[in-house]
Design brief:
With 282 residues, this protein is α+β, with helices and mostly antiparallel strands. It folds into two domains: 52 residues, no CATH class; 215 residues, Fumarylacetoacetase-like, C-terminal domain (Fumarylacetoacetate hydrolase, domain 2, Alpha-Beta Complex). Helix content is 15%, strand content 28%. The strands form four sheets. Strands 1, 2, 3, 4, 5, 6, 9, 10, 13 and 16 form a ten-stranded mixed beta sheet that branches. A four-stranded antiparallel beta sheet has the order 15-14-17-18, with no helix packed on it. It has a two-stranded parallel sheet with strand order 7-12. A hairpin with a 6-residue loop joins strand 1 and strand 2. Bound molecules: magnesium ion (MG). Magnesium ion (MG) binds next to loops.
Amino acid sequence: MKLFRFGEPGKEKPGVVLEDGIRIDASGACRDFDEEFFQSGGVGKLRAWANDHADSAPQCPEGVRLGPPVANPSKIVCVGMNYAAHAKEFANRATPSEPVLFLKAPSALCGPDDDLVRPEDALKLDYEVELAIVIGSAAKNVSAEDAAEHIAGYTMINDVSERAWQKEREGQWTKGKSADGFAPLGPFLVTSEELEEVNALPLWLDVNGEPRQRGNTSDMVFEPLFLVSYISRFMTLKAGDIIATGTPSGVAMGMDPPAWLEPGDRIEMGIDGIGCSTRKVI
Ligand code: MG
């Protein structure tokens, strides 16, 4: 099952993509795809509702804006340098011996195709296409064997970064990762049972039609189930939380000279089985 949210920013409604590709308004089934929805078994109830209401529910308007497929996550946890070639281009180092974690402000969340507004003093704007895990129920000290039970599904995130703020200022990476619009999510949350090969998904990103990132989730150093287990030892993952699993190589800062994002640029990206997005830098 594929979940999405549609409508004006802050006023999105929940929706479901049916097997024939038709998108229906799921407001009749639930209020929103938020912590309460996931924690209370909302995905299973929604599946049953969609089976019963496929023909009677209103269809989602053509061309409507898509929002992030999850509402108000308590946190966005990001994994750094989880692909060997990216660790080399980013920091000229081997892969870390255990996952590198940092947080991205949830206020950075936006729809997958929303314009990326370059902050006024941002000079080194960069992109990172990533597989994102959506937590389905609270997880604390879970084993990798049990982690799957705590995952609602997967989606796509662009871990947008301002490299000068991330690397040339004092302190941690968070300030280079958290501006408004730095976390476009979606288009769809694909539930776990529909995405069998999560460890072998091609992911890609182009800027103005030029191929920049070409990767595969099979190249991750630490795979999704391990990441959920690992992170849950350090913090409680709540239902609806997002984990950005790291990016393959090909980011702007790895180019010579770096090709930072500029107003007018068009970013297109996708993950097989999840979907594609296009956004413009303004
Ligand atoms: Mg990243």
